[in-house]
Amino acid sequence: MTKSPLTRDDLLAMDRDDALAPFRALFEVPDGVVYLDGNSLGALPRATAARVADVVKQEWGQGLIRSWNDAGWMDLPGRIAEKIGQVIGAAPGGMAVGDSTSVNLFKLLSAALELRPERRVILSERGNFPTDLYIAQGLAALLARGHELRLVEPHEVAGALDDSVAVLMLTHVNYHTGAMYDMAGLTQAAHDAGALVLWDLAHSAGAVPVDLAAAKADFAVGCGYKYLNGGPGAPAFLYVNPDLLDRARFPVTGWWGHAAPFAFEVGYRPASGIARATVGTAPMISIAALEVGVDIALQAPMAQVRAKSLAMTSVFAQLISERCQGFGLNIISPADPALRGSQVSVAHPDAYPIMQALVSRGVIGDFRAPDVLRFGMTPLYVGFAELWDAVEILRDVMQTGQWREARFNERRKVT
Amino acid sequence: MTKSPLTRDDLLAMDRDDALAPFRALFEVPDGVVYLDGNSLGALPRATAARVADVVKQEWGQGLIRSWNDAGWMDLPGRIAEKIGQVIGAAPGGMAVGDSTSVNLFKLLSAALELRPERRVILSERGNFPTDLYIAQGLAALLARGHELRLVEPHEVAGALDDSVAVLMLTHVNYHTGAMYDMAGLTQAAHDAGALVLWDLAHSAGAVPVDLAAAKADFAVGCGYKYLNGGPGAPAFLYVNPDLLDRARFPVTGWWGHAAPFAFEVGYRPASGIARATVGTAPMISIAALEVGVDIALQAPMAQVRAKSLAMTSVFAQLISERCQGFGLNIISPADPALRGSQVSVAHPDAYPIMQALVSRGVIGDFRAPDVLRFGMTPLYVGFAELWDAVEILRDVMQTGQWREARFNERRKVT
Question: DSSP letter string over B44-108?
Answer without folding.
Answer: EETTHHHHHHHIIIIIIIITGGGHHHHT-GGGHHHHHHHHHHHHTTPPTT-EEE-S-HHHHHHHH
